[in-house]
Amino acid sequence: MADQSKLSTILAHSHYATSFEAESDDEVYDERKESLVRSMLQEIGEDPNRQGLQRTPLRVAKAIDFLTSGYELSAEEIIKKALFEEDVREMVIVRDIEFYSMCEHHMLPFFGHAHVGYLPQGKVVGLSKIARVVDVFARRLQVQERLTSQVADALMEHLGAHGVAVVMEASHTCMMMRGVQKQRSSTVSSAMRGTFQDDPRTRAEFMSFIKA
Ligand SMILES: Nc1nc2c(ncn2[C@@H]2O[C@H](COP(=O)(O)OP(=O)(O)OP(=O)(O)O)[C@@H](O)[C@H]2O)c(=O)[nH]1
Ligand SMILES: [Zn+2]
């Protein structure tokens, strides 16, 4: 793992950094990861010293740290920063939250949308924090079902809500680019907690909103 300050820099600059930043050729980000990538390039018959690949180990090390940065983040801290007392009793839904994750079997991306609903119990959470919680668990090696449950469990635990519902729809590149090679299939997973699990009408209301 790269040290914290380097990882923080990557997270801070991830929205506007370009691949052609003017950095020195001898820049080292994470020697161990870079050397593993160099070995991988050699194993696939590439020449890690050819011009186009010289900075690839460094770029891959940075990319992999970003794509797995969720291990360093706490859903509890994110939620507690923006929890507001509010006497709201109606369902709140944030839908179509795009996410990118990596399957733990092949370390290939799966990506799609998450729909998250909750029934408040005296508190509401800042809406962006719901999307941030999705990223906390998406930016790890995952299976889609566990990702869905972890988002639901974290929100249920730290929101103090009557219930939480999470539905995720994703395309798995390990099923598209290789293996069974099915381009149009998508996978839907759901995790219902509290009222959404116990009351079919609440669940149906949520499902009708996310389909709308
Ligand atoms: N349940 C679940 N399975 C997943 C997920 N991501 C990938 N997989 C599956 O994990 C399984 C791993 O199966 P294996 O037979 O060990 O691996 P494989 O030989 O590469 O399998 P194929 O993909 O069928 O070629 C595959 O069926 C993948 O489709 C996920 O998020 N959830
Ligand atoms: Zn996979």
TrEMBL record:
Residues holding Zn(2+): C103, H106, C174
SUPFAM superfamilies for this protein: Tetrahydrobiopterin biosynthesis enzymes-like (SSF55620)
Pathway noted in the entry: Cofactor biosynthesis; 7,8-dihydroneopterin triphosphate biosynthesis; 7,8-dihydroneopterin triphosphate from GTP: step 1/1
InterPro entries membership: GTP-CH-I_C/QueF, GTP-CH-I_N, GTP_CycHdrlase_I, GTP_CycHdrlase_I_CS, GTP_CycHdrlase_I_dom
TM annotation in the entry: none
GO function terms (MF aspect): GTP binding; GTP cyclohydrolase I activity; zinc ion binding
Domain GTP cyclohydrolase I: 35-210
GO cellular component, one term: cytoplasm
Record keywords: GTP-binding, Hydrolase, Metal-binding, Nucleotide-binding, One-carbon metabolism, Zinc
GO BP terms: one-carbon metabolic process; tetrahydrobiopterin biosynthetic process; tetrahydrofolate biosynthetic process
The EC number(s) this enzyme carries: 3.5.4.16
Reaction(s) catalysed by this chain's protein: GTP + H2O = 7,8-dihydroneopterin 3'-triphosphate + formate + H(+)
Enzyme class label: hydrolase
Keyword GTP-binding: yes
Family: Belongs to the GTP cyclohydrolase I family.
Subunit record text: Homopolymer.
Record's protein name: GTP cyclohydrolase 1
